[in-house]
## 1
Amino acid sequence: MRDISNFLVRDLKDDEKITEPGFYRIPMERHHGQPCDGVSVTSSVLRKMEIQTPADVWAFHGLNPDRYEREQTDALRMGRAMAAFIEGGPEELERHFRVLPKDKPKRPTEVQLTAFKEGRASDAALKSIYFWQKVEEDPRDIVTEAEWELICNMGKVLAQDPAASAALGGEPEITMAWYDHETDLWCLARPDQTSFDGMLSDYKKVNTQGRPFSYRVCDNRITDHGYHQQMAFAREGFVSLIGEEPQQVGLVFQVDKAPYHVILREVDEEALAIGEFQNRRARRLFRECLDSNNWWGPGEDIGAYQMPSWFRERLIEEMQTAGVAP
């Protein structure tokens, strides 16, 4: 591979739109918030088009004036926190997250707030009001002390794993933007790490709900969440912008229970080819739905009940024994 270590990564200004293919440093919110001079699609949109339905995409899409607000789950919040730690350790985590102490006061009640406005708040109410006022004025997101400790412990294990450190040692959170002429859509891929010497990787924190952590768990996550599509999309962007194939594409999984084991799974050429096929199909479907304004959902699939084969075979056998088989 030719030397591309000094490839330009641009910082996009707040009032600037992406008008040219390239590598960009932009916040995650902008990545998902239509930052181009035309309609853009991300990996999460394409995967949802494949795994769910167009209606599930459009229900929360930024271009939908009647969209639902996306729920900010603990999993998403912790994912952002872990990404910050991987990028720059505790210092970077503290830049984006505020730690709530265990002995924090309860949030003030409506009665306490009313008393405060009337100048008759108790000392306990004043302590609660001033504490939470300071928290709300802080633009950073929140983690608890236990969550902070978990993130730091997991980060230490990652740092001590040579393979994981190598896989996550590239440029963090870079948006790759390129234009797809077939569908008239901008494409935005954003793996957790992009190494310009040819490695693309993404980190996944896993809770197994008490089951053993193994490569089977990781492979099932890849299939269920379409992570092979995600990495195929990243490879497509890399090739489109660099003109070279990445040398390796993979995922780093880590379980969120001590001793915080790490498993690396390479996404091979066949899986990437399958993912690229799905991504192209999803892009075409997205364009078709956008042009027709028909974002169909699961209710479009009308058909006959499909009885599980094991259940059907057992009952047919019982009916034959009873002499009433169809």
## 2
Amino acid sequence: MKKQAEIRDLFERFASMRALVIGDLMLDSYLWGEVDRISPESPVPVVDVRGEDHRPGGAGNVALNLRALGAGVSILALIGEDEAGTLLQELLEEAGIDTGSLIRSGSRPSTRKTRILGRNQQMIRIDREDRSPIASKLEEEVLGRLQQAIDNSEPDLILIQDYNKGLLSANVIRGIAEMAGKHGIFIAVDPKRNNFFEYRGVDLFKPNLKELNDSLGYRLDGSDQEALASALKTMRERMPHRYSLLTLSSRGMALFDGKSLRHFAAHPRQVADVSGAGDTVIAVAALALASGCDTERAIGLANLAGGLVCEKVGVVPVDNGKLREEAEKML
């Protein structure tokens, strides 16, 4: 009963937290239907479309996960002056996310990923985006909006979601870290390759195994715990930070605090789609740690959440009630 009471208390604390998400926002569009013939024009399947759906992806999915956990959420991101940008803003606002810090640009399109599915399987993905680094004028605007967001909402957590779409330049990253440090805000990062080693001094840094290998030039498969600890130590020497959280796909995840490695095995699941699982993991882990939860329970909760969303097709946020129910039984 004590364990269940502690879990209930943690989820109640989530509702009092304020989070600011900064990063690459994208629109995930889905077209799905039936496949029962091959095109006479080319040897490819024909999808007879039966439905269409649109969801916020990337930083938007992180924001949705934080909101699903009960936190107050605002988002600072770049969208285009286009239909996809308008739809993204509407979807975020419908979910109760503050979009006052969104920046609309006429010089760049909104990032949009269109997935075509037949018989619940992805057939093809079509991307529309501009991955070039943002101009210095936009960098200044981003940092200005960040200062306004901090002044207005006083966030407990800043979560950076990097998808290498150009928003998070080295200058922007350093500016975020400096402001977060000045205000004592917990800062968590889900990195990508381009600026992997720019996040010095953050509280939580969450690469996956491929990103770690690519950045260090390694070929680890995740099975050797000593090798993982050595690699994470090397990473931390190049870029000091508080906690390293490494996701290992079907092997679960590992937490390294600079001294010891703690492995969290994946829970058996009927996996339907792994898309967006990393977004869920960073959202849950960051919010739990920022709310004062101990590392063991925070990462265990994130591990549970990542598995739960893999049971769903497409990019979806975690189900708060289901996560709480499983946490009360297993953590």
## 3
Amino acid sequence: MKHLALLLLPIALTLPTAVQALEEPTYEVVRQITEQVEVRRYAPYVVAEVVLDTTSPDAGNQAFPILAGYIFGKNKGERKLAMTAPVTQTPEPIKMAMTAPVTQSPTGGGMRVQFVLPSQVSLATAPEPLDARVRLREEPASTRAVIRYSGTWSQANYDEHLAKLRAALGAAQVATEGEPVLARYNPPITPWFMRRNEIWLAVRP
């Protein structure tokens, strides 16, 4: 993560100190389950994403330069887009993820990492990436169960809160589907106790 921190440092120094100043996908809370767990209804939004043959701890480090390059002008027209939050990542089988050549790992697994594009950018108006690994896609309207927590991005912290989320949803009889999504709202230089982290699970219709 040291490499990612160095990459993010110039950006973080130019960002507002309040996380709320960064644009986020639009949502409404439709059910509060616990103090940390809620169900949200998200409006559609557009993402730039990359799928890499890597593990969760290394996904952000590898994906950030690729996606940051796109929003900072590595696209047709050299158009620069505003930084938003969060950056998300979720497990993705490489063979299902993209047609661009990748080096397969022994496990055959990969990670999908997404940057949310500003709300005024649609799939039709988003600039075309120059890097073939970057794909643009619209996330449809969806209902997601979310747990919000602070702390490090360690696997242990993630596993602890994913278990809490699943337990709370089980008690509330909320059924989910698909892989969990890790959403990170702060750069690595943010002190661990000030970070906003979330895990999302799609609620089954």
